[in-house]
Amino acid sequence: MNRLCLNEAGYSLVTMMLVITIFFLLGLTILTVAAQQARLTHVRVEEIESFQEAANAIDETVAALKAAIAKPDFVLSTPARLDDDLSRWLPAFEQRYGVTIRDATEEEGIDRQKLFTRVLYISAPHENKTVTRRVIIANTPSFLKYALGSAEDLAVNGGAYIDGHVYAGNDAYVTNAANYIDHSQRRTEPTSFPTLSTDSAWLVQGEAFSCTGGADCYQRGTGTFLRQPIHFSHGLEGATVQKETDDFIDVDFNWTVKDKLLNAAGIETFSDEYEQWIDKGIPDLLSMLEDRLTVVEDIELLLRRSWHQSVLLYHPEVSSFFVDRGEIDLKKHWLIVNGDLFLGNTVQTPTKVRGNLIVLGDLTIQGNVAFDASVYVTGRTLIYDADISGWGEKELVLLTDGPLELARMNEFHNSFPRQPNLKGYFYTSSNATVYAVGSYIHIQGGLFARGDASKRAPDADISGLVVNAYRGRAENGLSFIPAPDDDVDQSRLVIRHDPQVLIDRGEGLPFVKRLSLVVDRLKVE
Known about the structure:
Layout: H1 2-70, H2 79-97, E1 100-103, E2 118-126, E3 129-138, E4 148-150, E5 153-158, E6 161-163, E7 166-168, E8 172-175, E9 177-182, E10 185-190, E11 195-196, E12 201-204, E13 208-211, E14 240-242, H3 253-264, H4 272-277, H5 282-292, E15 294-296, H6 299-304, E16 311-313, E17 320-323, E18 327-337, E19 340-343, E20 351-359, E21 363-377, E22 381-390, E23 396-400, E24 404-407, E25 422-428, E26 432-436, E27 441-449, E28 464-469, E29 472-475, E30 479-482, E31 493-497, H7 501-504, E32 516-524
Helix pairs in contact: 1-2, 3-5
């Protein structure tokens, strides 16, 4: 009996020791995990703080550079003078903010003797990595900084996806419905709200309005928008709505065209001869160009050779010119078209255009056309059932003084490809309304309507730019299959801003007498 009690006591003691050992090991494990977690948290906090310090140093450098070019005593005189200023500013900024600034202007193929464009990479250390932001200095209008916008009002109806900042010089209107025209009748289809990428913002200088009522966002029969104060819960969760702090630098279209005509004639901007001609009218400049440029009357001659000088396309008895095959290759020189121009293709090979164009009339683009070009159009521009690609790695910058119309683009296509079908930046001095309900439009570049406050945009009740976009499938006959609100891959209007145009287009870009900065995304390498 005593031996049995002793055995039971021994078992109890062993069991107790085993339980104590298990709890001790569990406690030790928990303590070890907690210590590791605390160490990882500490490392993570240090990593975040390091990244934030690097990002802040870069942003402070950008702010200092922006302040330097905005000072009243800063004068934009010559590219050489700008380089003198940068040679003083940049070393001081590096020392003050602990950053490294690399000038990559020559690497990008920019002629710093002729252009004010400069490309800088501002870097700061982060742990064992480097945080870098590309900054482009350019004397170009502000509209090139935005993915979408208008200097007047902007209405974004429906489920567009926009990667880049959106600008409204006056008021902005956002709805979850898209308008379209069916057999001359104006109709409205409920859909998703527009979506911006995570680092993009609505830059609205006036008031922002939204409506969640779908087709009821518009008064029946009038198209008048029912203005309601914007609420972030109304389809704009996470979106940033703020004022643009930079001044809007506008483009003077008529002055710009005359500036480019003089450049085509070999007259340098701000030279004595330039000052004698810049205030004259375009007819007078054309008379001067006939004496200074190669005049071509035949499209076939234009297509048969690669040109190394600027060309005037002119025929005294012809007002319209058609190019539906082949290549127009002027390198970086100018083609002045005295009349209307049609660009398209009748074969599988795209028609190609390289150089800079001024069309003194209307422009129509239809079919597959590849561009490495800046194009100025004094009349209207119609882009109809077109696929605009880049010639090589380049793109198109198109500015039209008249209406810009995008019609029947990839109509009823439901494959939603990732590659753009309009590679370029598209600008009009007028008002514009864009429909991407039956169409599918994917722009790599940007879309901007300067706006005309004396008129209304087509099929709208505001001045400026109106875009309509469905999110989902659109079948022939306009039957709709909606996509989920968060499925941006089925947006029928996609715009991805590409600041590369500021580098690629060079002398072809609109010239203004002020510098501005275009700041790219942060990169960690």
